[in-house]
Design goal:
heterodimer, A: 188 residues, mainly alpha, Four Helix Bundle (Hemerythrin (Met), subunit A), 6 helices, disordered N terminus, B: 600 residues, Cytochrome C Oxidase, Chain A, two-stranded antiparallel sheet, 4 strands, 2% strand, globular
Chain lengths: 188, 600
Amino acid sequence: MNAVAIEQKKRIHPHKFTLWIAMGSIVMMFAGLTSAYIVKKNQANWVTFELPQLFWYSTGAILLSSITMFIAVKLFKQRNTLKYRSLLSATLLLGIIFIALQTVGFMQLWERGVTLQSTVSVSFLYVIVGLHALHVIGGVIALLVMFAKTFSRKNRNYSSVPVEVMAAYWHFVDILWVYLLIFLLMIK
Amino acid sequence: MSSEAISHGTQAHAMHDDHHDHHHHETFITKYVFSQDHKMIAKQFLVTGIIWAIIGGLFSVIFRLQLGYPESTFPWLEDFLGHWAQGGKLKPEFYYALVTMHGTILVFFVLTAGLSGTFANFLIPLQIGARDMASPLLNMLSYWFFFIASIIMFASLFVQTGPASGGWTIYPPLSALGEASSGSKIGMDLWLVSMAMFIVSSLLGGLNYITTILNMRTKGMSMTRMPLTMWGLFFTAVLGVLSFPVLLSGAILLLFDRNLGTSFYLSDIVVAGKILPNEGGSAILFQHLFWFLGHPEVYIILLPAMSMASEILSVNSRKPIFGYMAMVGSIFAITILAFLVWAHHMFVTGLNPFLGSFFVLLTLLIAVPSAIKVFNWLTTLWRGNIRFTPGMMFAIGFVSLFISGGLTGIFLGNSSLDIHLHDTYFVVAHFHIVMGVASFFGMFAGVYHWFPKMFGRYLNNTLAYIHFWVTIIGAYLIFWPMHYEGFAGMPRRYYDYSNWESFKMFGGLNEFISFVAMIVFAVQLLFVFNFFYSIFKGRKVKSQNPWGSNTLEWTTPINPGHGNWPGEIPEVHRWPYDYSKDGKDFIPQDVPVGEDESKH
């Protein structure tokens, strides 16, 4: 292998790097929304709201899913495909549970008359939490693809990069949720 | 293709030096349409940008007709615009639509996608010594998202109620309420969808540019050995990646207000005698979110132009760029400050004056890095062995316009003065010179300078000089008088100034401006002709390095294939500005440092 190729291999993998920058970009989007929220809150006629109880359970689910994802990456690196598959499916399942709980939480809010249009504060809640859920759904779709790939006979690629990229994104949406939850609890 | 594939490509090339192209078979579709070659994608961006520039420029000529000749009718306009120009007179609704689309097209589609998209794609891999972008696939998608955005925006020109007409800044409530104006209906929806696609495009592009620059530089190409173009394009991408998402969040809230009955931006609004139920929102909130992108956007447009001008000035002065690290530091300072000055667009919105004074200070601070850059450009030119190539002419023109337009920024950055000048023609003059025309000059400089690398042919010089002189004189003739109109209080956005006693005296001046605008537009068509003619019929490039430039793109073959270098990627041994050193005219970056060589 010539010098240039070695030089280029030493650096961080471009896909991982791209993901890191993309995370910065997503952070900026939520920073925009949460700062708009703060600006709006400091104006008159702000109505406070209570978060649905279910959000605590969903928080538990997504935190747990981060742990399963973490172990899954380790297992993949150890070439323990069977256990990797089960941990990956556990992560996938917990991700789906998270989205389901968020949805049911919102449905309960809606039934209590706290709808999207009721006050600006609640509109913010719906948009911010909804956009986060969309990012989790994106992660779930990616997990599904990864899951399908573990069964593919054609797949002879043992590079851990895709798994690591997936895991980094998954931890990211987890941390993002914890930030949003704390934000919404502290400032309402 | 991942970097591994690229690395393998490197290996393969090392083994087969005569092997010119990459291994995969290329058809017309993969070569010219769904190409993953960064050079072809750059050309796609450039050509799309040129088409948009013609449309956007034409719109300005049409609305200048209304401003310059408010009492005349132009029957041919009716043939062209139909019911929007009944009896040969532009309808006020369509006047606003034209102004809005002119701004949108020029700011986003031409000077963001057309400028960054072209030169970041073209120059980054070539100047840092990479075979392609970090992710050629994302790069291709970036263009096609831009293409979809273009199609949707173009389609919005033909809907019955007309395109968006609330200004390129889409302030609510005009943008949030369908019933607010004819341009607030489907035209506005299409605008938002198109911009969402556009944001995706620029994010995909930006991710790639940053990753490629940080990750894929050739051996020896440390960050401080990069040409200034790379620094400019790098920070441009950083600005885009961090500010466009905020516009996206603002636009999402706007979409909710438009379609789902929320009230983020709406409160106590009466339309046609009907009180709307929306309560508790704030239109100012949108302005904050918009300008948090909107101001960095100015530098997204300016930084590529600045950095290309730096490179071209140095090459054609046959002198090293003066103050390389100061230039890098200035670009960095501008990037940081760009995020901290957005509220200077909002001094008259009832912003707390105490808060305003911070924004005044931060805004005026931008004068420091800007002045450093100007000083360095002038000192680079000083006693240089200047070659007045068309690219060089436009680069010098850029410096001239940047100074003229930048100085009026100091006026506007002061909140006390801005209260008088806000929304007058002074503002129009300021941003057109410093952001619009200056960036166009940077872009033209880039096109004239790198055209030989792009197409293996030269542009026609005679046409280029005509293009330069008419454009620079014309630009000053158009925008200089607007400062006076603005000082006299003439507001922007009015459809007909002849109705006001106080602005009647500017009738002749407005007519003059419109007349010059038409000439300048006609000369741009000359450039377009030169561009397309020269692609096929221009004088062929005979030498590998026609400008005697140090940067790596000139070490590739005259018509490089996908992969850029037929053999190994050159190794870099020095910075890119060793001009007129030790008795040599220039020493390219891939030449090893001699033992007896003096330090730069």
